[in-house]
User: What shape does this take?
Amino acid sequence: MDLGIACSFRTTGTEALGTAIARAAATAERAGLASWWAGGDREAAADRAHDPTLGLQRVARATSRIRLGLSGDLLSLRGAAVRAKQIASIDWFGGGRLELGLDLACPPPVLADPFREIGDHVGRCIDNLGAMRALWTQRRASHHGEHVSFTGAIALPKPVGDRVPATHLRATTADVLDRYVAAHAAPAGWLAWQAGRADLVAADAVLTRVLGEAAEDVRRTWCVPVADLPAAREAIASLPVRVDELVADLDHLPTDDEIAAIAAFA
Assistant: This one.
C-alpha cells in the first residue's frame, strides 16, 4: 500500500508561499512518500488557500519522482479549452506525473459565478472532460457535446505522450457514477476523500455495484485528516475493502517535521 500526502496551499508561518511549497514537496519526495495531492477547489475555498493548480505546478518543478494529483477539480466551473491547457502544462513541468481527480458533487455557493448558469453540473463536467480529452489526444481536435462543441481545434501543449492523465473520481452516488461511466468508461481511481471507515466501505460498495468485476481494476485511495492517520493505518488490515493508497490531508503546507511524522507510517 502506498502512502501519500495532501494539503491546501496555505502557509502558517513567515515562509514565502513559493519557497514553502518547493521545500515541502522536496522533503516529501526525500521521505519516500508516493504521492502529493493538491487539495480540491472545495477545500481551497473552505481553507481560504491559494489555487490548487498553481500550487501543484510549483510541486512539479521541485520534484522528479513523486506522483502528482489534483484531488478535486470542479470542471463544471471551468472553460474546457483553458483547463486542458493548464493541466497539460503541469504535466509537462512534472514530466508526465500528473493525475486528475474530479469532484462531481454540486459546487459550493461561494464558488458560483452569478453571471454564468451551470445548470446540470454533472453533465457539464462530463462534457468538459470529453472536450479536454479530445484536445489532449487529437492533432486537430473535434468534440460535439451538449455544452461544448468545436471542430479542427489545435491545442498545445498536450500532456506528455499526448495521453489522457489517469482520472480519479471522488466517491459519489451510483447514478452519477453511471453517467460518468456511460461517457468515459470506468475511472482509473476512486477517491474516498476525508472519509471515515463507514463512508469508505459504503463508497466501495457503490463502485462495485456499478462496475461489477471491473471495479477490481480501479485504484482505491483513502484520504483522512492527518490527525486520523494512525487509526486509519491500523484499521486497514481489518477492513472489508481494499485500500491501495492512504493519504494524510492537512489544511496547510506541512512542515518538515509533519512530513517526517506522516512518512513514519509507511
Notes: The mean pLDDT is 95. The chain has one domain: 2-113+157-263.
